[in-house]
Fold these 2 entries.
Entry 1:
Amino acid sequence: MNPVKVGLLGLGTVGGGTVNVLKRNAEEIARRAGRGIEIVHAAARDLNKPRICDTDGIQLCTDPSEVVNNPDVEIIVELIGGDGLAKDMVMQAIEQGKHVVTANKALIAKYGNEIFARAQQKGVMVAFEAAVAGGIPIIKAIREGLAGNQIQWLAGIINGTGNFILTEMKDKGRDFDDVLKEAQQLGYAEADPTFDVEGIDAAHKLTILASIAFGIPLQFEKTFTEGISTITRDDVAYAEELGYRIKHLGVARRSEKGIELRVHPTLIPERRLIANVDGVMNAVLVMGDAVGPTLYYGAGAGAEPTASAVVGDLVDVVRALTADPENRVPHLAFQADALANDPILSIDDVETAYYLRMSVQDKPGVMAKVASILAESDISIEAIIQKEPVAEGSFANIIMLTHKVQEKQMNAAIASIEALDTIDGKVKRIRMETLDAN
Ligand code: NDP
Ligand code: HSE
C-alpha cells in the first residue's frame, strides 16, 4: 500500500522534531500504522532559516494554504501555533475533508468546541495529544485507559518552561529572567513566553484535560489563572525549610457544587512524587474512583518528546484510514502481518551491573584473590566495602558493585569465587539497573 501523504504547517521546534522522528523511525512506524507515513509538503515563514531537520524530498513553501490545498495530502499537521492563521488552516483542512493533527493547545482550548463540531459534520479526525504535557500520552490515558472511571480530580505540572524555571531557581539559585532565556533557546517556551510564566499555557492545557476528564465543553475563559512570575528565590527557600516544594499546578476537581479549574503556584509536601518532578519534566496525577491515584510523567516540551505525541496521533489517524474498521488498533500494537522475529535473549546473554555480597575469611590476600578472579573474567569493580567481622576469627562480609558484564561471564566468576576455600557459602548476587536515560 502507498504511504499516506502528510502536509506539515511549521518547521520549527516541533515541526522539525516531527520530520526527524518520522524519518528515523519510518520502518517501525509503518509496521505499527499498516502504511508508511510521508511528509510531502511543508510550509514555514522563512525558507532560508537553518532547520533542525533534513527537508530533502519535501516540497517547501511559505504559504500554508498551498499545503492544505495540495490534493495529494490526506492529513494536515498544524505546528505553526497561535489561534489566527493556525485556526484558518485547520478549518480549511476540515472543510476539504482532511484529517488534522495539532500540538496547539491555545487553539484547542479556545476554539476546540467549534473545530470538533465541524470535524464531526465532515467526518474527519482532529487529534491533539501533543497539546497537553508534551510527550506524555495523557489524553489517551484519560480518554481510553481510564474510560471505566469517574474521574474525581486531576492535578498536574503541565508547563515545562515554568517547571524548568522553578527548578533552576531552587537548585542553582539562578535568576528568573536568565533561566527563561535558556528555556527559550532550548525551544521549550511559547512564541510569547508570558503564556508560560503567567500560567496561560497551563490554563489552555488544564481546560483540555478537564473536558476530557469530566465530559464538559472546553471553557478556557472560566479557568482561574495565576503564573509563577511573582515567585521569588526566598519563597522557594522558605517553602523548602518547611518541607514543601513550590510547583506550578493545574488542578481540576469535580465537587457537588461544580468543577474547580485553576492554575497557580502551589506548595506541595516534598515527600509527594509530584513534588520531585524537576526541570522540563511534566507529571499529571489523575484520581479515578475505580483505579485510585495514577501518575503520568515525562518530558513536557522540546522537539522530539512533542514529536513523539504528534507521530502517535498520526499513527492513530492512519490506522483508522487503513485498517479493517473492526480492528483499528492491532492487538499487539503492530499490524499482525508486520510482527518481527527478533530473538528473545537468554538471561546468560543479558548485560547488567551487579551487587555481590560474600562472606570471606578475615585474613590477608582473600580480597586480592577475589579481585583477581573478577579481573581475569574482565569484570571491573565500581565500588567495594569490607565489613568488620562480628567476632575475631569469624567471617567478614565483602560487598562489591561491578560495572556491566554479561550474565554468563558473571556466573563463571561467581563459580570460581565460591570454589575458594576462603569463601563461606554462596555469593549473593543482585542485578543492578541505574535506569538513567542512556
Ligand atoms: P516554533 O516557533 O518553533 O515553530 C513555528 C513554525 O511555524 C516555524 O517553522 C515558523 O516558520 C512557522 N510559521 C509561523 N508563522 C508562519 C506563517 N505565517 N507562514 C508559514 N509558516 C509559519 O514553534 P514550536 O514548534 O515550538 O510550536 C509549534 C506548536 O506546538 C505551538 O502551537 C506550540 O504551542 C506547540 N507545542 C510546542 C512545544 C514545544 O516544546 N516547543 C510542546 C508542545 C506543543 P519559521 O521557522 O520560518 O519562522
Ligand atoms: N511552552 C510549553 C511548555 C510547551 O513549556 O510546557 C509545551 O506545551
Entry 2:
Amino acid sequence: MKKKIAFITGIAGQDGSYLAECLISKNYKVYGIVRRNSVVEHQKNRLENIKHGLELTYGDLLNESSLSSLLRKIKPSEIYNLAAQSHVRISFDIPEFTIKTNAIGVLNILQAYKNECPKSKFYQASSSEMFGRSVDKDGYQREKTPLEPTSPYGCAKVFAYNLVKHYRNAYKLFASNGILFNHESERRGTNFVTNKVVKTAVRIKLGLQKNLEVGNLNSYRDWGHAKDYVKAMNLILNHKKPDDFVIATGQSRSVGQMINYVFKKLNLSKNKHVKINQKYFRPEELKYLRGDASKARKILGWKPQYTFEMIMDEMIDFWLNFYEQNKNLKDY
Ligand code: G4F
C-alpha cells in the first residue's frame, strides 16, 4: 500500500514530536518544519528518538512562499498545523508577534494548502483558550459554546478557527479544527504550569532549590496527556468528513489542587515552599476550563487512556530520573 505522507508544522514541540512518533508507528512518511533557532540543540531534542521516516527542513508560517514550495514538493495527504506562539501569558508581552504567527500564519498555510494540494486534509490546532469567559450552564465547554477569548493568544486562535471553517465551506476543503484542552507530559515546556511545578518540586526535594514561585492558584484547567491528544488529531483527519471536535478529559482541577497532589506525592510542605509572585499573573485570566468531549467519544471513538494522577506521576518520575542520571546538571 502507498505510504501516507504527513506534513507537520511545529514538529519540534511537545505535540509535534508525539504526533510524528504516532504517525511513523502507523507507517506514514513524515515531513516537518522547524524554525531557525540560534541554539541548534534546542530544535530537535524532542525528536531524537525518531530515526527513520522523518524529514526536517527549515520553515516558518510567516513565510508563505516557502510553505507553498514545500507543499508543492511534498504533496502531503495530511497537514497538521501545530506551529504557534503557544504561551498564553507571553502573548500579553508580544501580542503582535503572537497574532501574526497564530492568525496570519494560519491564513498563509491555508492559502498554500488551497493552491498547492487541495485534495489533502488539514488539521488546525485550535484551543480551549478560545472559550475564555464562556462556560455552558452545566459547567462544561463544548463545540457550540460561544467563544469569548481573554488573551491575545485566544483572540488569534479564534481568528484561525473561523478561517479554517470558512475555507472548508468556501472552497470545499477537508479542513478540521481540534479544540484541545490543556495537555501535558514530560516534554511540556517548563514555563507551563504543570511541568514547572513538577520540575521545581523535584528540585526542592533534592535540595537543589528552596521555593516554587507561581501566580494564580485559583484558575481551573482540564488537564490530559499529550500522547492521548495527538491520537485524536489523527482520528479527526481520518473521519469521513471535515468537522470540529473538542478533546478533553471532562475533569477540572485548580492549579492549587495540582500543586497539592505533586507536593504530597513528594512529601513536601506546600506552606513552606510555595510563594506567590505577581509576575506570573495575567492581565485577564481564563478562570475555568472543563471540556465535554462527547462528540469525539461518540463519532471518533476517542477516549483518553491517562488519568490526571498517571500524567503527574509520569512527570515526577521523569524529573527524578533526570537528576539521578545527570548529576552534573544541577543548575538545569
Ligand atoms: O500552563 P499554563 O501556562 O497553560 P494555559 O495558559 O492554560 O495555556 C495552555 O493551554 C491552552 C489550552 O487551553 C493552550 F492553548 C496553550 O497553548 C497552552 O498550552 O497555565 C495554566 C494556568 C493558568 O491559569 C495560569 O494563570 O496556570 C496558571 N498559573 C499559575 N502560576 C501559571 C503559573 N501558569 C504558568 N505558566 N506559570 C506559573 O507560574
